Amino acid sequence: MLSLWFMGAEARKQNPQEKPVIGISLDIKEGRLTVLANYVRAVEAAGGIPYLLPMSHDSASVAAVIQRTDGLIITGGEDVNPLLYGKEPIPQIGAINTERDQAEEMLFKQARRRRIPILGICRGMQLINVLMGGTLCQDIPSQWKGDGSVQHSQKVPKDVATHSILIDKTSILHDMTGCDSMAVNSFHHQCIDRQAPLLRITARAKDGVPEAFQCDKEPNIMGVQFHPEGLFANDKACLHILQYFIRQAKTRK
Ligand code: MN
After folding, report:
1. Is 99 a catalytic residue?
2. Which tens digit of pLDDT belongs to each residue from 131-153?
3. How many angstroms separate the Cα of 5 from the Cα of each of 12, 22, 242, 252?
4. Which pLDDT belongs to residue 16?
5. Catalytic residue among 105, 122, 137, 163
6. Which member of 152, 163, 188, 227 is catalytic?
7. CA-to-CA distance for 196 and 214, rounded, in angstroms?
8. Ligand 1 centre distance from Cα of residue 188 (Å)
9. Is 227 a catalytic residue?
10. Predicted model pTM
């Protein structure tokens, strides 16, 4: 039903069989726009149509693109520029990418305005927190106030879960997974420090590091610090997270 896709989300709503189109944000590095294939495979496996978003800084273009999507995934990547949350960079910060920060800010704002489901993954979760008024811990090993007992930069591939998280029983994440705790993969040296006023932390690692949030006022906005797109093939809970998100995208008002 390609013709319906070109007619946009409004037309698709009249055909409930149509799969939702899920926009996926890209990275830019050395002049190349890239995305890990796992994101594309995961959206397909969960019942959506993956749609790679252009990295545009033109608001009319971004609005037109978001108009054609039913859900947005803000993907993982490098560190968010700390000037965006009013901090100077500490020596331990990794590479930043202001061009990407700005492009994803436009995507997020347009998607939020349209109230389509938004899933921030890893850096995407951190960026949403910053864009909604929160701050980040720039480097867990040197800055985190917890006991530092959990390794968050795992040395094994993405399809291996290495640390556990505890999930709030009253959260959407709990509805999605049916789990009080689960094992996740972990590829981050930063995390949420102060959460944005509208966000609620719904899962934490055992050292207290935030691993998921939701927005009770705008339940279409959610973030996870781990990578369900790397685990879904052999972890039902991660597949269920993605399927729940795709269903939200399909049935949104
Ligand atoms: Mn972690």
Report:
1. no
2. 999 999 999 999 998 777 899 99
3. 7, 12, 21, 17
4. 58
5. 122
6. 227
7. 11
8. 6
9. yes
10. 0.93
